[in-house]
Structures
1.
Amino acid sequence: MAKKKQTSGKKLGHDPFNDLDLSWMEEEEPSPEPVLEKVKVTPEPAPEPTPIAAPIIPSTQPSKPEATFHFPADFKWGVATAAHQVEGNNINNDWYTWEQEEGHIKDGQQSRRACNWWENTEADFDRAAKLGLNAMRVSVEWSRIEPRPGEFDDAALARYSEMLRDLSERGIEPMVTLHHFTNPLWLVEEGGWENPETVDRFTRYARRVVEVLGQHCDLWCTINEPNIYDFLGYIEGTWPPGKSDLKEARLVMRHMLLAHATAYWEIHDVQTDARVGLAHHMRILDPAKPGSRLDRRAAKAADRIFNQAILTALVKGRWVLPLGFGPAWKLRGTLDWIGLNYYTRDLIAFDRTQKGSLYISRSHARDAEMLDGGYGEFYPKGMYRCLKQLGSLGLPIYITENGIPDDDDDQRPRYILTHLHQMWHAIQMCYQVKGYYHWTLVDNFEWAEGWSLRFGLYALSLKNKSRKPRESAQLYADIIQANAITPQIIDTYASGLRPELLPG
Ligand code: FCB
């Protein structure tokens, strides 16, 4: 099965931990912060005793195990998208400018007309409705809504109203993300997320969006993946603004989390019943050699920096390294739900040769099945492991993104089935998973990877923008229709998974 190219042992890109304080290497690790509290499970009332009926003995035993994995009746099945990746002609944001400069995007590609959603979303909304989706995560583009500081474009807001109404008319509940990586050029000129004033500017923009779009939506995601934005833009420097500066990275992250928190209160001020959360990218970061104490400590440090620090700030109201020290009261309790964007895992090793990068290097398990385009390991168990961590926060959870770049769709059916099976497992363990948004409906502009990574349930022709469903589209539709993973679905789309999902 592990037929994809392996990149085992390879160091992946610039290391984020370059120049970080190395003192943790020497110090005894303090006992882990109890970031995560046990989930409170209300005990089920004891069932009424029922008279014992004679057992029904099937006349023939099924030849194969036939278990069905059911999902909750009100479960939300969606896809996730982001404005800049699908709309086209977003020419007033920092990504557009970034795309124009040579060397920034793979093969010199650009977003250009993207999936042409600004002019026509209806056709793709029809496709979504045909799949049976009852939810969709979309984002709105700040540079369209507020093209100049404090000036809001009513026509742009009207277009978004129209899109949200179109979704509702198709029985699809929208989740709207307010910030998904892109910034208006005017904001960047005024210092972007390094400038503390951006916190208030974002809040003013959020207020306006909710005032206008609130009639069609009450499920809001303030910011998408602050850790990825910060890491790629301010540490690795492969995304705008292309910086590599830990101090700035820290400042940006603090401002983003503050902006989330102030927007949280502002949104509730406009819409009392709003449900406001944030999409958090989590990766499983395991020690490359579990027997090595140094690898274990390196993996733990990486996990705290990348996965946990944000959660500690938002849930406990406390800054911890690398974000700083001390109270962050404003942040506390500003999540009505938490979003999980889960894709893959990395193995973390202590590496003496990586002196300037906290002695950490990343790699993949030697026997791992790899995803296309060096996207990482095929690691479904990570879905459960992330949900378990988030579940302990006691908040409702949406899987705001999960998906795979796979042009020929030879891995996606197994990816979807195994990841949803892990999600099912988490739901059985009483973690409050409310919905799943697959990334994504139609192949879209994948940031620095241009059009090379194909994440869509529908393949997009770059020539004429036509769409063609991949087999996975029908698989997803079948799961949604059954609201379950059935043996028939497994047999139809990935019979090889039987021993794993339906062991005899
Ligand atoms: C996530 C981003 C999303 C998309 C997927 C593949 O990190 O939030 O925009 O690019 O990766």
2.
Amino acid sequence: MSTPLLIRGASQIVTVGGGAPRRGQALADVGVLRDGAILLVSGRIAAVGPVAKVEKLKEAGSAELLELDGRVILPGFVDSHTHLIHAASRAEEYELKIQGVGYEEIARKGGGILNSVGKLRATSSENLKARAQLFLERFAEHGTTTIEAKSGYGLDLTSELKILSLHKELSAEQPLEIVSTFLGAHVVPAEYRHKRNGTREYLKLLEEELLPAVARNRLAEYCDVFCERSAFSLAESRRVLEAGKMHGLRPRVHAEQRSHTGATGLGVKLGAASCDHLEYLKPADIRALAKSGTVATLLPGCDFHLGQKRYAPARKLVEAGAIVALATDFNPGTSPTVSMPMVLALGCTQLCMAPAEAIAAATINAAYSLGRHGRVGSIEAGKQADLAVFEVADYREIPYYFGVNTCWLTMKRGEVIHMRD
Ligand code: NIG
Ligand code: FE
């Protein structure tokens, strides 16, 4: 057993304790402790509470000390929507978008997702892995300790399995936990586009070869689909998600990002873990989400990066009682950021979420959407010691100082994985 660790001297311990998921007013109730301490034993939180009480515990006597000198400590961020594995940036498209060329127009000309697919197929697993490793270090530097990662830039058997196998390898070899999602239905790949029944043929491949191979090799927990005019229709999305369920993969959905498709209603009906994006949500969708256990995952980094004025209706979702989460959507096309602190800032200024709401959305509710709320997402006795310390005196300063990384230290299962020098 490793030496216990006593963490004290925080100006605030933002515990986000008290159960999951958080809906309505409970989202802002993040349980801030002052004069608190946290005792870690064997990579877990053994106790959290008033310093006078925690210091009296038996293991505290022999514990090493970590003094936070007035900094703020949070549960490590859970980034519940990323496209981790990709081969290159799309900075050239970024410049085109700034000049006024639309996202769909770029995609029609072979750019967009297909641009990333071409590059990924031509890149070795070793190179993809090395690139992902660097990004995983950056996630940790920004206070993130768990991520979800989607395939979807492979779109053939070999390349999709290459991505999903990397999720598994990386999750085992570096400290961050990676929750794997199969997104074979990202778009129809180029080689099927000129065929008369190309979409149908690709979906047949997906159902008869890709999904069975993913399930057989236990390479994903979730199956996602991009339901959009430029990707898959509602009927096609239903087919993919139902096929995923048959293989034991719970649905997640890219829904109402660029237009209203009805994907949210579908996701709720199919018991999706999460419906993501939601910029074009309708009142009936908000009601459906509010009555469901499906998480509404908002990705304001996308709208910010694409220069879009339309953001998801976060306030309406919170007020209706939906389970709201925030994530980066780290990907080369619409949101090339690993920074949850930046996403918190966008959640506050663009989605009008209170800083406390944004923190709960980025920790406990995100953990809930990944089925990990029993282990991570809050600072509570019994949970994994996944923690992030920020060089600020008040948790509201984390989104307030936007564009700078105030993360001072990150811990995964009680091990320091990032410390600012
Ligand atoms: O979440 N919407 C679909 N997928 C990604 C974008 C992918 C890309 O442009 O490469 C997203 O925004
Ligand atoms: Fe995405």
